Amino acid sequence: MRILPSILFVLLFTCSATLLSDNAYGQRKDDPNEAEPDKLVDAKTKKAIERGLKFLARKQIKTGNVKGGFGQGGYAGGVATCGLGGLAFMCNGSAPGEGKYGDEIERCIEFLVKNTGENGYVSTNGGMENMYGHGFGMLFMAQAYGMTQKKELGEKLRKAVKLTVDTQNSAGGWRYQPRKSDADLSITICQIMALRAARDAGINVPDETRAKCIEYVKKSQAADGGFRYTMGGGHTSFPLTAAGVVSLYSAGIYEGEAVEKALKYIHRYKPGSGSSVSGSYFYYAHYYAVQAMWHAGGDDWQKWYPVIRDHLVSQQQGDGSWSESHSNELGTAMACIILQMPYNYLPVFSP
Q1: How many domains does the chain have?
Q2: Which of 221, 234, 303 is nearest to 260 (CA)?
């Protein structure tokens, strides 16, 4: 794995914190991906990534009340897009205030800190992203805090974590609003990944919270290996299964029937198979699918990444963006994260 000096500290910190834990959010001790990044991220892909990141940098607002966001309203201007955009810049090797996109990352931090309320809810006024935005925003904030240990960022991150912990329902999951009610798998996994990142950055996450949410995920898997939207039933889907197996990996569950069946299910939806998801769930599905295959390593990874890489490169628009129904900024951020997975710069995505 290539490591930039600017983020060496956070990688060492994360590995130490995780390996000393009880492995509820364990880290794999072996690296299942031995191929050098340059063998997968070829020149054409590097150019596409650079164009995508430049698009995001152009779209980020530099001044005013919404400084650091990527739009004045809607999904483009929300906390999820900001969090994912910040992660996309970090995946390129930049850190807050350092590297090619260091300034953009700093502005993302400023935007998310400003939009974290006293109750810990990460959301813009009237935020339409609900707990999705809270989760993706918290995920980025945790990565940034691990790199900087900034006091104000840490204070807001702790409040965000507390809100998530306090709103977990009795079954172990979360729903759209920051309160205890029913739950669905998609939003629950969003919180799981953010909590994992926060814990890696040194923020306390109660053992009970972690145990309950992983149990919720396990109970959401059906006999065919796929994951359902709610524990109450319903059909399984590729996006939810990709997200579900990633959450198992993040919990230190790397082997076993549940993982094997889920990976087999996901392979049915490889781009070009004729079954791959399209529309508004495409980037969400492949954001998690590429992480699942990255964790699986070996043939799973080597057969998956080149296909999604080539598909995304072929779909890039003339201005460097990727088209997505909610906003092109959101689609571009997710596409750049997917394409940069082989770089392995971010702890939360590491095997």
Answers
A1: 1
A2: 221
Residue pLDDT, tens place only, 279-307: 668 999 999 999 999 999 999 999 999 99
Does a structural domain hold residue 236?
A: yes
pLDDT at 5 over 80: no
Q: CB of 165 within 8 A of CB of 223?
A: no
Q: 301-327: per-residue pLDDT in tens?
A: 999 999 999 999 999 999 999 999 999
| Residue 40 within any structural domain of the chain | yes
Residue 100 belongs to what domain range? Answer: 34-209+228-349
**HSE, side-chain direction, 13 A CA sphere, residue 68:** 23
C-alpha 338/C-alpha 291 separation (Å) is: 8
Give the pLDDT mean for 49-70: 96
CATH code, 162: 1.50.10.20
DSSP secondary-structure letter at 321?
Answer: -
| Domain presence at residue 63 | yes
SS3 label, residue 236: strand
Least confident of 16-25, 105-114, 223-232: 16-25
Q: Is residue 216 part of a domain?
A: no
Could you write out the DSSP letters of every residue in 59-119? HS--SSTTTT-SSSSTTTTSHHHHHHHHHHHHHTT-BTTBSTTHHHHHHHHHHHHHTB-TT
The pair of three-digit structure tokens given for residue 312, joined into one six-digit string: 């995304």
Give me the amino acid identity at 248: L
pTM, whole model, 2 decimals?
A: 0.91
In three-state secondary structure terms, 200 is: helix
**H/E element holding 262?**
helix 257-267
Tokens of 198: 């926060």
